[in-house]
Amino acid sequence: MKPTAYLINMARGPIVDQAALYQALLDKTIAGAALDVFEKEPPPADEPILTLDNVISTPHLSSWSAESFVQLRRDVVQNVVVALKGQDLRSIVNRKFLVSKNGQKA
Fold it and tell me: Does 103 fall in a domain?
């Protein structure tokens, strides 16, 4: 990354080597970072990266916006309608626990 670059991680903490990021920020190899996630959640109170002045952190809330809440409500209503119609639900995280109409696991 260029020295003027900013790293933004809103995905998953472990995809970034946090120790290497800390060193890059400390050495000014990159300009800064905005972190919504960390390798360990929640980060320890003495996490060194949180002491740097070129780091902005949020408590894993960056996706919570008025728009995301509206979309979440729409998704829930759509899933209820789909379920009432007996159709396959969207966005099933634990599909192996979903039970079909005949009582069998999907």
Answer: no
Q: Could you tell me if residue 42 is inside a domain?
A: yes
Q: Is residue 60 among the annotated active site residues?
A: yes
95 assigned to active site: no
pLDDT, tens digit (0-9, with 9 covering 90-100), for 57-94: 988 776 678 888 899 899 999 989 998 998 877 777 77
Residue 57 CA to chain centroid, in angstroms?
A: 13
Residues 50 and 11 in one domain: yes
Q: Which of 12, 73, 74, 95 is catalytic?
A: 12
| pTM for the whole structure | 0.61
- Grouping H, G, I as helix, E, B as strand and the rest as coil, residue 8 is strand
